[in-house]
């Protein structure tokens, strides 16, 4: 490593930190100054309006009241300003623009109407990609949640619970790229006359099969990529569900036990209904993450051998093939798929806030 | 599902001596099927990572010719792979040390900025009364779920071409070169992190005791003062939870980095470089294994040492995308 190459980067980091200090510090100072300024102006107005012989000691009292009653909109705006500005520039306006671009051609010069959407549903290749995405979104939440739930129940109150949970949860800390490399190594292939270096082929050979190029054979390869996502997400499901299981009141469990229910009934009639909200959260969260899966496909097969998914194809169209219109149409389609989840979540939120 | 707790004991004896924790644990351990199943899952989940870890210390020709499980019968371990992949001079070797620094430079500001902005916004949404507060909160909440893909193309063109509306230039092009591109990566990560950050912190801040806030108001404290001297110290656990969440997200991200940093060695983070190596040098396992492990080790340390906070953050419910 050449330190001379690294110095400019560290300098950038320093600039970044200084910018952070200046922006946030400045904001806090500004927030301090602005209300004081308002207060002083109000005080001045009060003083001007008050009888001249009013004792000075009476000063603080009206001011105090005014602090409590002052309309606070202007102040709130200052608190919210950076967030709202960044959300507008970084998410809202771009999302609207993407929608507009999806009705234009590859260079965003001409309007093409719905051509990009027709292209999406006419091409066999893209239809295959949509099918793959569907398989992902059905399988990953289902299997990851099931495994997470079974494991959470199994290790609940076991002796090495903390360690056992950390082992399953660990993949959450690993990047999708890292996870893809880990699993690519498991799926590694060498032809039959050599020793295998991939675990899967080794096991396969041991049970009497011919070594396979697992990642090249559709449709199995999509399932093998799905395994990677399940491997990552099961830990998330396990942690959330385990917390929900622990939150079931002890006397409910005790009462059921006194009634003589067997473990199977206990699971379906006590545990499952109690953790229903947590189950929904897990399934929704994992589904959204799965819909947008990109890294795994890109790192393992780059969408070749019929493994493409929407997010991956969107990247390829927009950033590799320069087909901005088609890429945008795919992004919009992805957005349309999550709209029901958005509506459902917002309704839930409003219900919660009314209580 | 397979909990075979013996049928509850009948009669008063059970009521008199409620089942203690220890008794439950014993019962659980008495069930070989449950124990076996959980061990099986744990092993299945750990083995792939373990194989990668072992392989990364094996000499190149060993990795390429024999399975890592044979390493224990004829142990041969070396640190050469790490030396090569981190500091090797040749273009094919990885040169990951530089990318490692890029990852750090990208991650630190990308955690700090959203943390500060979101804390301010969450406070305003929770404790300042103003018109339209609920609507803003719901909008921010809904933005969590909007796929990043919706923003990528236009945001990139904002940076490269600026913004103009009807011929009037609202923002000039940034025209960033080399290391300056870090700025646009920070910017993108900050924007994309804000909805989930505001949501998580709002969950926490809105649960602070109302009496505390009102007492402070009656004493004449202004909102900025309350925020700084009362709220900030109280929400440190929430800040830590989101900080870890965002750290892992940014460190592990590939998509945002690919688009806003590109592949150049001046800005691209570890993930981008690794994905590239996995694509172009798919059979150089000595580099891929050690490289992957280098990218994993930092989040793993952060995660293992601060797991408590991270789990709390997850449980508060983030649905980032």
From TrEMBL, chain A:
Q: Which CDD domains match?
A: TM_PBP2 (cd06261)
Against Pfam families, the record matches this protein to: BPD_transp_1 (PF00528)
The regions listed as transmembrane in this protein's record are 12-34, 73-96, 134-154, 166-186, 223-245, 275-294, 328-346
User: Upper taxonomic classification of the species?
Assistant: Bacteria, Bacillati, Actinomycetota, Actinomycetes, Micromonosporales
Predominant location: membrane
Q: How does it sit in the membrane?
A: Multi-pass membrane protein
The name this protein carries in UniProt is ABC transmembrane type-1 domain-containing protein
Annotated family: Belongs to the binding-protein-dependent transport system permease family.
Q: Where in the cell is it found?
A: Cell membrane
Q: Does the keyword Transmembrane apply?
A: yes
Q: Which residues form the ABC transmembrane type-1 domain?
A: 130-347
PANTHER family membership: ABC TRANSPORTER PERMEASE PROTEIN (PTHR30193), OSMOPROTECTIVE COMPOUNDS UPTAKE PERMEASE PROTEIN GGTC (PTHR30193:SF18)
Which key words are in the record?
A: Cell membrane, Membrane, Transmembrane, Transmembrane helix, Transport
Report the superkingdom from the record: Bacteria
What is the residue range of the signal peptide feature?
Answer: none
TrEMBL record, chain B:
> Where are the membrane-spanning stretches?
33-54, 99-128, 135-159, 186-205, 226-248, 254-275, 287-306
Q: Which Pfam families match?
A: BPD_transp_1 (PF00528)
* Location(s), subcellular: Cell membrane
Residues forming the ABC transmembrane type-1 domain are: 100-306
Primary residence: membrane
> How is this protein situated with respect to the membrane?
Multi-pass membrane protein
Record's InterPro entries? Answer: MetI-like, MetI-like_sf
> Which keywords does this chain's UniProt record carry?
Cell membrane, Membrane, Transmembrane, Transmembrane helix, Transport
Which PANTHER family does its entry note?
Answer: ABC TRANSPORTER PERMEASE PROTEIN MG189-RELATED-RELATED, OSMOPROTECTIVE COMPOUNDS UPTAKE PERMEASE PROTEIN GGTD
Say which family it is in: Belongs to the binding-protein-dependent transport system permease family.
The protein here is known as: Sugar ABC transporter permease
